[in-house]
TrEMBL record:
Gene3D superfamilies: Cyclic phosphodiesterase. A motif (HXTX 1) lies at residues 54-57. It is an enzyme of class 3 (hydrolase). This is RNA 2',3'-cyclic phosphodiesterase. The keyword Zinc does not apply.
């Protein structure tokens, strides 16, 4: 039975990805931290709005129109993933060499996050859902785009985060993110 995902009106672009999704209170604390970093370091660029904060787990790609069968297979794969809830304190700010973004992250990838990433990747492969992988998994939450200068990895006051779920996101230009599915961690 289909989930009702079909071609988008007007053939608009869809960017699909699995992500960690901060709860509202954490989003507010991230935004406060981002504002303080912006005041202190004046990176230029533009700060993301709190409703855009996420940590990408697996990127499925950009599509026009939205491929309903791919979404159904991705949802089915995610439903088979088993992984424990875990802590992911956001305790540093940084930027990638040659990038124009600032991000928040954690010095070491927690075992629970690595387990979730691995298990989701295997589940997607079993359902033949292609992913667009960059060479390695570097979990981060983007807070600033189009910056004029980079920042070395710098410790910040930790923002505790107990990760209890992951989501499938449909991102369309100029629109709020659309959560297509939500899966709890045990």
């Amino acid at each position: 039975m289909g989930l009702g995902f079909g071609p988008a009106p007007g053939g608009e672009m869809h960017r699909l990805f699995f992500a960690l999704w901060p709860h509202d209170e954490l989003r507010a604390r991230i935004d406060e931290t981002a504002a303080a970093l912006e005041r202190e370091h004046a990176p230029g660029g533009r700060r993301l709005k709190p409703d855009r904060y996420h940590v990408t787990l697996q990127f499925l790609g950009d599509f026009r129109p939205l491929p309903g069968r791919l979404v159904e297979d991705a949802v089915a794969a995610a439903a088979t993933v088993q992984a424990p809830a875990f802590g992911l304190p956001l305790d540093c700010v940084g930027s990638f060499r040659g990038s124009n973004v600032w991000w928040l992250g954690h010095g070491d990838t927690p075992d629970g996050l690595r387990t979730l990433w691995d298990n989701l990747g295997r589940a997607l492969a079993l359902r033949r859902v292609p992913i667009k992988a960059s060479g390695s998994f570097v979990p981060h939450l983007t807070i600033q785009r189009d910056v004029r200068r980079q920042i070395p990895s710098t410790p910040i006051a930790p923002l505790p985060w107990r990760v209890r779920e992951f989501v499938l996101v449909d991102s369309r230009p100029g629109r709020p993110y659309d959560i297509l599915g939500r899966w709890l961690l045990v």
